[in-house]
Automatic annotation (TrEMBL):
Its main location: cytoplasm. It comes from Ligilactobacillus pabuli. It comes from the Bacteria. InterPro entries: DNA-binding_RecF (IPR001238), DNA-binding_RecF_CS (IPR018078), P-loop_NTPase (IPR027417), RecF/RecN/SMC_N (IPR003395), RecF_2 (IPR042174). This is DNA replication and repair protein RecF. The keyword DNA-binding applies. HAMAP family: RecF. The lineage of its organism: Bacteria, Bacillati, Bacillota, Bacilli, Lactobacillales. SUPFAM superfamilies: P-loop containing nucleoside triphosphate hydrolases.
Length: 389
């Protein structure tokens, strides 16, 4: 899988432009606030129908414009698939092969991407919310059922929390309705936990191999899923649903008092262990970064195993955050395997000896030029082009 063309109209600081990419490595050069990350973000939004930087779609639309358009031509196996995402006041409209999709869940998964940014190096030592978001975003791209369960779970969770607050304030008294919401929440929540455990089991397998290689066989990486549900180990999806319903029922009085749901996948966490010890607590900064790198690179193989094709890899200024050994391992892992987009302030910041024949784009104030490694302009891409077809 690779992105052949990208057409942007009124996205962030881009008025209108069309780019053609290499199926291997594409280097985006430019100083801060010129549009490098905006370009990566547009690819991420095209794939996932959401930004990794903001929850407000209005921020994605160019100043003083009413809507934005992102179009891409994706090569998948033997076919070229046109994708289109429109962002406007009435929300998002998605098209695959020029056909509008009734639900975004039908659109997501047409193009798979993995984003690796400096903040991802804090995956290990960061907040539980960040680790849950990591699982949900990555697994949601490749498992439509998981995405459906997660969306439904969040909807029911909002309803249940709202009703718990009413019960807490004594503005409602119907416990039967609370029980109905608990049963619905447990149905979706038990499925999510079961699916997360399966996904993390496969991710762990690949991450272990990578981590052993990076550390020259000195460190063994393992995962531990931490749930607010008690005794989840070895349970089937149905058993997890029943267990969650049981524990929601047992904690009902406490939840009413606090006005919020205390049990479920929205409160779970992921623990990383090196040689059996918690990296979050006992690991050095180097071990934490190596763990994050192993996990992110493992996603590439998981997506390949799940979908049959490698995803795109977006590296947003991440090389400058890695030492020479980790840079080398990263670039050797992806070379001739994954279409990659990486940003850097200048070519000096890129490990040129490890990258073979990249396609280079210089970005300045939303204007893009294709250049050679020596800085010679090959093609100006600032002019207006017809949409991708």
């Amino acid at each position: 899988m690779f992105l052949q063309k990208l057409h942007l109209k009124n996205f962030r600081n881009y008025a209108e432009t069309t780019l053609e990419f290499s199926p291997e490595i594409n280097v985006l050069l430019g100083q801060n606030a010129q549009g490098k990350t905006n370009l990566l973000e547009s690819i991420y939004v095209l794939a996932t129908a959401r930004s990794h930087r903001t929850a407000n779609d209005r921020e994605l639309i160019r100043f003083n414009q009413s809507d934005a358009v992102i179009q891409g031509l994706v090569h998948r196996r033997a076919d070229d698939v046109p994708l289109e995402l429109n962002l406007g006041k009435r929300g998002k409209k998605a098209r695959v092969n020029h056909l509008e999709q009734a639900k975004l869940s039908q659109y997501i998964g047409q193009l798979n991407v993995i984003l690796f940014a400096p903040e991802d190096l804090s995956l290990v030592k960061g907040s539980p919310n960040g680790r849950r978001r990591f699982i949900d975003m990555e697994f949601g791209q490749i498992a439509p059922r998981y995405l459906h369960n997660l969306t439904a779970y969040r909807d029911v969770l909002k309803q249940r929390n709202r009703y718990l607050k009413l019960l807490s304030a004594r503005k409602a008294s119907d416990r039967v309705y609370l029980d109905v919401l608990s049963e619905q929440l447990a149905g979706f929540g038990g499925s999510i936990i079961a699916q997360r455990q399966d996904f993390l089991g496969e991710l762990e397998k690949y991450a272990q191999e990578l981590h052993l290689s990076i550390t020259q066989g000195q460190e063994t990486l393992s995962f531990e899923y931490e749930s607010k549900l008690k005794n989840i180990s070895g349970r089937s999806e149905t058993e997890l649903q029943q267990l969650m319903y049981q524990q929601l029922t047992e904690q009902a009085e406490k939840e009413i008092f606090q006005g919020t749901t205390l049990v479920g996948p929205h409160r779970d966490d992921l623990k990383f262990l090196i040689n059996g010890k918690n990296v979050q607590i006992y690991g050095s900064q180097g071990q934490q970064r190596t763990t994050a790198l192993s996990v992110k690179l493992a996603e590439i193989d998981v997506m390949k195993a799940q979908t049959g094709e490698y995803p795109l890899l977006l590296l947003d200024d991440v090389l400058s955050e890695l030492d020479g050994q980790r840079q080398t391992h990263l670039l050797q892992t992806i070379q001739n395997k994954v279409q990659t987009f990486l940003t850097a302030p200048a070519m000096n910041d890129v490990a040129q000896n490890l990258i073979k024949e990249p396609k280079i784009f210089m970005i300045e104030n939303g204007n893009i030029k294709e250049t050679t490694a020596g800085g010679k302009t090959v093609l100006e891409t600032v002019t207006f082009y017809p949409p991708v077809s």
